[in-house]
Amino acid sequence: GAGVSQSPRYKVAKRGQDVALRCDPISGHVSLFWYQQALGQGPEFLTYFQNEAQLDKSGLPSDRFFAERPEGSVSTLKIQRTQQEDSAVYLCASSLMGQIIYEQYFGPGTRLTVT
Amino acid sequence: DAKTTQPPSMDCAEGRAANLPCNHSTISGNEYVYWYRQIHSQGPQYIIHGLKNNETNEMASLIITEDRKSSTLILPHATLRDTAVYYCIVSLFGNEKLTFGTGTRLTIIP
Questions:
Q1: Residue B80: which of B39, B45, B109, B104 has the closest Cα?
Q2: In the 8-state DSSP scheme, what is residue B5?
Q3: Are B49 and B106 in contact (CB under 8 A)?
Q4: Closest CA to A93 of A24, A37, A42, A41
Q5: d(Cα B99, Cα B61) in Å, to the nearest integer?
């Protein structure tokens, strides 16, 4: 079946531009996660949704980062006024169960380069 | 979540068993050990998890020491496709956050 998809796969933005990254989770998956992965590092947690509710946004690095999942399916991560330090791969993951999570399914990521 | 320590890199010959160690000496009684791997240019992929008993699935085996302070992931017959970064993660079951660390870069040598 279809896995988690993300678009675009690559995004180049000039410093100061706004970007929007899209995640299509596996159909029926209740939980959705965003991670940020800098070059040579492991992924770092950004935020978590259960259906449309954003239950944890403790990992968002600044108020320039905003995520939403209005209908409990597709999610968008928006970064306003991008900075060079925002350059990273942004990974989305989904999981079937809302309460018991042991396997997260990851998308291929969006590589953001801020110039 | 407890901290984990993994060697930064390992090599293994194709067809041999790859044994990836992980230390988690501060693990608490209700924390699980999870393993994920990340092949180049892909998102991480779940491999296996366990609490205190050894576990096996179609991908790998997980051996957890009796004191739970360390574990080993075993890929029984490594192939070139197993070349990846392997992450050992300790977390409460049901915790929505995964804390990845820097992992072990495993290279399978033909």
A1: B109
A2: B
A3: no
A4: A24
A5: 21
Q: What is the pLDDT of residues A7-35, one digit of tens each?
A: 999 999 999 999 999 999 999 999 999 99
User: Do B43 and A108 lie within an 8 Å CB cutoff?
Assistant: yes
Burial class (CB in 10 A: 0-12, 13-18, 19+), A53: exposed
CB-based contact, A98 to chain B, within 8 Å: no
As a whole number, mean pLDDT of residues A43-68 equals 95
Q: Name the residue with tokens 């993951």.
A: A93
Q: What is the pLDDT of residue A3?
A: 94
Task: Kindly tell me the burial class for residue B13, based on how many C-beta atoms sit within 10 Å of its own C-beta (0-12, 13-18, 19 or more).
Answer: exposed
Residue A100 is nearest to which of B45, B94, B102, comparing CB atoms? B94
Q: Is residue B29 within 8 Å of residue B90, measured between CB atoms?
A: no
